[in-house]
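Data availability (excerpt). The following record was deposited with the supplementary files.
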Amino acid sequence: MKNKKKLKKNILDLSESKPNLGLGVNIKKLDRNDNIIDTEIKPRIPNKKKIKSVRGSDSDRVNFTEDIASIWTNKNKGNSFKRKPSRKNITIVLTIIFLILILGASILGWMFFDNKEFSETGVLVEISGDEEIVSGQGYKYVIKYQNRESVKIKNLELRVNYPDGFHFITSNPYASTLSLGVWNLEDLKPGETGKIEIESQVIGEVDQELDLEAVLSYEPANFSSNFEAVADKKIKVVEKLMEFFLEAPDKIGNNNRVTYNVRYKNITKGPLDNFRIKMDYPDNFTILESEGDAKFLLNDTWSINKIKSEEEGILKIIGFFDLEKVSSSSIGAILEIKSLAIEIPLVGEENPNWRTYSTVIKDIGLSNVTASLKISINNDHQDLAIDWANELEYEIYYKNNTDEILEDVSIKVFMESEYLDWDTLEDDFTGFLDQAEFSILWDKRTIPSLDKLEPKQEGKIYFSIKVKEFSEEYIDKDNHVVNSRVELRNSNLKEDEKFIDSNILINKINGLIDFTTYARYYSESGEEIGSGPLPPIVGETTSYQIIWKVKPILNNLKDIYIRTILPPAVEWGEGVVLEGQDLVFNNDTKEIVWHVDSLEKNKETVAKFNVLLTADQTQVDKVATLNNMITLKAEDDYSKGKIIITNSYLTTDLSEDEKATGKSKVTDLDDLDSLE
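Predicted structure:
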């Protein structure tokens, strides 16, 4: 009995550990405290299995199979059996479950993502828009992109390559970079789409094809590599808005004066007012004048006014080449169209953004001529403005360019102008003067070497003549100019040549300017417009009014600048000019500048300002200077010449102010009594 009690105690101790399911314990349900309830115990007892005693090694070996079975089947009524798992075991179980869940999620992720196929062809890009266009008009192009892959795509960048002639205006959404051709886009899930709308102005020649290309780079969500999808759009120019031509000679000879005819025509069904013309001159070409339907803007730019459907226009540009530099040259006429982009123009400019629409280039070569023949005036073979009463010094250069002798050569100069004083003609070669024809002729009678001009032989003829003094009878005449050219004749010339021409010189005469400057203390009506003591007194300040008057005679003036500098004892007071003019005083340099943009002939403009004289002892009994030399510089709008006039300095000797007569010299206070 004693041994059996010990055995029972040991078996009960075993119940505190986890039941051995191998022994047949089946747990059907646990309560909230993890206690076993409604437990059915069905022991599995091996037929021949023996269990060792829990006693020491010296104990007897006994078969307790029946006792164990009795315990597990609750045959011992005095004992009850309930099991509660330990916290340690619960933690282990929860950890195992958590790891199983993570493993399951990884497997599912692999099944749903990594296991999805990426075909590399499921990302699509296309460009829609007009394929045939009219050059210069605006067009919209839409770039659509779509993800047909089974995975998301990321890091999307759309890059649009614009061909020449395709001008970006705006886009929706706006481009990501200043190049206006790159967009950074949102990620696209499977099945999602997007689009970019681009407003453009397309310019090209008829039948020209432009290739617009869109490249979409992206990265699939399950890849670390970049892929690209590409689309392109063929755009063909089928019509233009304007026709554009340039007429020019292919070659020039001694006569280097050239006229270019630029022609244009509106070939649309409506009016146009968005074009202008620019000229690209070679370095050795000088423009003289232009005329025609286009409006002059700058030396190389003309605006085309509103032009109706099927209407034509012409621009004539007249100029000359420098024969010393020209061998062959190219000149270009460029038709520009106003950009459709909305931009803020600069001051004085309608639209700063113009596009090249059409370009025509003409090559001009130098003809092979029998004889070189060139005329120059005052050492210049280009057109220059001249002044009334100027002396014109002529030089005529000639040379036999052939390998043959030129016989019986004659050279005649024509000076077509009524403003030359023929009485002042000086000609050491004593040519034959034909005053009615405005010409002088030299031949073998006056220059013996002209009888036979040897190959490569050259020579020069000099003479001079003056321009007439200006007379009021010339005021109502328009063209105050001297035109000069030379002809060479000889017996070797072919019948169709007759004579060889030289270059032509057109020397326009500058207009006159009535420029008067004076100082006053009293106005013409006798009122004081100055202040302070008169005559001026040492140490005290006297104010004078300075008057400058400008009146152009014959021609309009542009960019008129009149300057002077105040002496040390004189300070600036205040001044007044007409609206739109500038009268500026520089404190550092003591310079006064009066600027007038333009002035029509026979129109007078005036500037008035006060200066303050504070005389010192060094000026006692002297006439004080109020301002230094006065210089006028202006451009004659007709002759394009620069006019420079210098007037003398003004002093306290007020020659225009009769009331101030005798009060010009600086006086000391001690000498005032002597004036009474």
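Summary of structural features: Residues 424 and 465 are 5 Å apart (CA to CA).
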